[in-house]
Queue: 2 jobs
Job 1
Amino acid sequence: MLTIEELTVEIGGKPILKNINMEIPPGETHILFGPNGSGKSTLMMTLMGFSGYDVTHGRILFKGEDITGLPIHERARMGMGVAFQRPPTINGLKTGQLVKVCAGQRPVAVEELARQINCTQFLERDVNHHLSGGEIKRSELLQLLAQDPDLVLLDEPESGVDLENIVLLGDTINRLLHRGVKFPAGKTHREMLQARPKSALVITHTGHILDYITADRGQVLYNGHLCCSRNAREILKWIGEYGYEECFRCAM
Amino acid sequence: MRDVNGGDIDFRQYRTEAEAHEYIEDLGRVAPSDAEKFLQVGVSTQANERAGTFIQMDRSVVHCRTGQEGLEIMGINQALARHPWLAGYLWRHISPDGDAITAHAKAAPAEGYFIRARAGVKVAHPVQSCLYIARDGFAQNVHNVVIVEEGAEMHIITGCATAPHLTTGLHIGVSEFYVRKGGRLTFTMIHDWGEKINVRPRSVTMVEEGGVLVSNYISLRPLGSLQMFPTTHLAGRGAVGRFNSILVASRGSRLDVGARILLEAPDTRAEIISRAITYGGDIIARGDLVGRVAGIKAHLECKGLILNDGLMRAIPELTGHVPGVEMSHEAAVGRIDRREIEYLMARGLDEETAVSTIVRGFLNVEIEGLPPPLRARLDQAIAETQKDMM
Ligand SMILES: Nc1ncnc2c1ncn2[C@@H]1O[C@H](COP(=O)(O)OP(=O)(O)OP(=O)(O)O)[C@@H](O)[C@H]1O
Ligand SMILES: [Mg+2]
């Protein structure tokens, strides 16, 4: 689904990501760990094609196509979707309207989707305007549900979310990834899995989200280097035990 | 347009005479091209959506109708003949020698509207008035008086426009509004003047105890120049004044628009919100709040966007004369935040659509009391104006 080759990224002339190689096969969910400032969000923004993130070397392949130079909306239309850590406020645009935008040409039951993910109360509010931390996460996921991307990039989906909502969030992510135990009526589990396979890259610090979604693999980003790739829970255990010290040595 | 006193207007350039237009009994018979212009500025020829209508073409009152008991609508000259007391309401709070504009207005003959809601009358539907210039080079001179008597409520939609293809013209409007104790006036003005029309309104509103004035101003279409700075006196305890404006200036359009609200009694509240976009034109967005007594609250919000090029000046002013006033302002001038554009692109919108979505949102200020069909028209007008901006 996604292949990153020797990716080097600078922000304002300063190298942030260094020679990143990564592969997310179709249907797999990968977790991205790493200390603050290690470049996790930078990687997501670069994958999506945001300005200011200059790729100085390497390339990004999505569904087998080189998208390194593609504008953002074309990547989105190809099936990439991201839930941002700090999305901007857009005055005068209602969240409900944006959800329709996300669905593109497809019909979308905005109210119904919003109800499922506990967002109805801010559908009529301006996008991200004075939303609480947890509300922003739900609003981002609501948009992704409407967008229905094949590669889902989630930047700290659970940070600042209370216990009740984290369950909801986990369910929603599983639905996005077609890994839910609840699946659309009239379809068998196998049919659902055979439908377009969904992949994901999820950034987390705490790993709480791992209690709700199944991760196929974990990766660690340390100071701009991708230095570890193995079972996500194992990585989490290591970090819990030794912090990122070990990654530092590993990255050497 | 650095002259806010009208010194930049050469009155000799305009005609003060225009042929009289025939009275139109049945609005269904308005010429289609004029009716279309009326609609664009919120004036409906469908009488059932309005409590009353006043239409002035050049200097003739061509239609005047009231559909509710206790609601008076007529030409100012007719009203002066009917109500001897009315003379005392003209030039009461606006001085003829205030500036070149008022001096000219005093000297030249004028028509205009008189609209009054009698005490306690709640006017169910909006009242509409339309000031229309049909004759090329004409200087339209109006003097308007609106009185909302004690406890009455009324929404006036005023549309100002010119006939299609008009090249020059001048509109001078002197307006004196009175909102009595506990009264409520919503006044929505929509302008669609032509590209070379100069517009100089001069207005003062007096709001008594517990009275509310909501003023909405919308100018999306090109015009020559507009300069206005209406003054509102919140003279009685608990009076409220709220101004919303939406301004768009294309190349060649010069807008100098603001509102001044004087908070002269305790517990008065004022709010001025303006959204302005220039794409090649000049905009000066002013706001002036003056707190004269303690226990007042006032806020001013002035936001401007420059698309491509143009001039945008925000001039917010706050003056407190005593301690115990609570006054604030927020002003911002700039271009659209790149992050907002890219955020929408990440949801699948191409760049141009993302920009126009943001612009539409920017202009989407809550306009109180707008009937839904007019709101829809306004949204449509914004969408059309946007096409020109891009
Ligand atoms: N626009 C920018 N301008 C300058 N430096 C930036 C910019 N964006 C990110 N950086 C820097 O790049 C580095 C990586 O930031 P990034 O946001 O990717 O970290 P992160 O791994 O997501 O951290 P966190 O866990 O705190 O979210 C940091 O040192 C940060 O200060
Ligand atoms: Mg981050």
Note: Chain B has two domains: 11-336, 337-390.
Job 2
Amino acid sequence: MYELVLLKNIHDPRAADIDRYIELGGYAASRKVIKELTPAEVIETTKQTGLRGRGGAGFPTGMKWSFVPKDTGKPIYLCCNADESEPGTCKDRVIIERDPHQLIEGIIIASYAVDCHQAFIYLRGEFSLGYRMLEKALDEARARSYVGRKIFGSGFDLEIVLHSGAGAYICGEETGLIESLEGKRGHPRQKPPFPAVQGLYGCPTVVNNVETLANLPHIFTRGVEWYKSLGSGPKNTGPKLYCVSGHVNKPAVVERELGIPLPELINDICGGVRNGNKLKGVIPGGSSVPILRPEEIDVRMDFDSLAAKGTLLGSAGIMVIDETACMVRLALRTARFYAEETCGQCTQCREGTWWMEQVLHRIEHGQGKMSDIRMILDMCSNMKGVTICVLSDACAMPVEAMINKYREEFEYHVTEKRCMVGTKSHAHA
Amino acid sequence: MMFSQETESKFKHLASLYPHKRSALIPMLLVAQKEHGYVKPETVEYVAKYLDLSASEVESIMSFYTLLHRNPVGRYHIMICTNLACMLRGSDEIEACVQRKLGVRFGEITADGLFSAIEFECLGSCTTAPAMQINGEFYEDLDVRKVEEIIDGLRKRA
Ligand SMILES: Cc1cc2nc3c(=O)[nH]c(=O)nc-3n(C[C@H](O)[C@H](O)[C@H](O)COP(=O)(O)O)c2cc1C
Ligand code: SF4
Ligand code: FES
């Protein structure tokens, strides 16, 4: 039986109230950290747990914090990345709406570790309820001096500003987020310099995902050994949220250890593929990662096991696809998303995503040529590893995998001018 | 007076929150939009002046963000997710149903000014798909009947 950690409070309708949250043991960890530990100890402990960022890239959190220079004389900022917009992903929202104090505690601990006195929550503009929940939770925490001046009666000051985005996927990319928070277009910045050195307003800045930060109170309540006892190995530790959507009987945001076998998630926890249909594929980490075929899904849901299979854990947005879905249409919808969301700074990304959508549209509607398939694959290889941020790769990788792994469906569309699945004809010509 | 007292005081608060007041730009535009339904040209001028920016700069930044409207939308603005997880669970039918109920195409406003609808990207509601938002509130686990009821309900309320 798995004991919930990150989601343990979410079925308590009062957990968002600070009194109830405290009754449930809340704010003990952040208080202890501030009163009893040094920032260096907080960083060291976090390093020892092996916690890796839950926002997509899986970078070790303690190490990220240790890159922040201490002696620049400039203020240090923490940005909580609450922009959750990766298609297939809805895990941070659960924490934000139902257990906002857990996140605030995480922000307090991380801020203390890096000596930040002003933190920002960059919240996706669409999350209206989340905004109200966080606003109220922050007011409650301020009223008790858990946020604000001399928090928990210590000498440590921390203000937390809730900032609303306004609809742009690219503002989830950490430097796009920083630009947006500065009141500009969310254009990602060339790296280096990395945000840890030169981020918000040119100052050292740490960007951490909501779920990453939510791990922290538990680490400082239950300790390193406990934390490392969860997971599938020393480099893949701790609890993890998985968003299982699509053609399963019971779609859900599920918490289990990092590295749970994917079939267990799909079949045992989420009730298997709907209507007893045949599985066609699984996208394991949000729309930006390569799809797995049914014969590839026997894999653990952790950073390294998925990488070994040529895909990524990403945001752990697991989309299950059964035999009724048309892969050409999925590829087109994927490309369309990135074509919509590219910021346009890099030619390969701006033009690649646009062309990819055009050509896939042609194929989907029965007007494609065999050479179009080859052309998309060429475009994909030209879009990877050459741009300011990885949105370009995030379009190329999944589309390339869909074509390579389900090529017969694309070819069928070209030769037969209709879908291989179902009876719908897409021929408009 | 262009804005209500409440909006004015929110502006003041927002501009005081950040080390550089320009950071308040997008939140201020969102607050203004809440009052007027969209960002009016006068709002752009006003907010630009407030933050020591030029109006054209504000215009250009604004165009980057899909939630900021430069033209009026319906009193109830429906955003239907059509991304992968929702598509897999029938967002096509939801889209068709909304268009049929409203009798307008995406991007248009109904003659009574009550409704407008657009296709939208992933709303972060993938495990409760298909999903849509109306004026920022979630409607999830949708089917055609539910959508009809929701729209009828809003019509009645108006
Ligand atoms: C196009 C793009 C979109 C991203 N969107 C998000 C997002 O919505 N939320 C998030 O936490 N990270 C997102 N990331 C990852 C961030 O850049 C960054 O790695 C992360 O916030 C760091 O936090 P972590 O170390 O705690 O994971 C995105 C990255 C890219 C390239
Ligand atoms: S890769 Fe695409 S989204 Fe990223 S900076 Fe370049 S153009 Fe913008
Ligand atoms: S794909 Fe529709 S809410 Fe995520």
Note: Chain B has two domains: 5-62, 76-157.
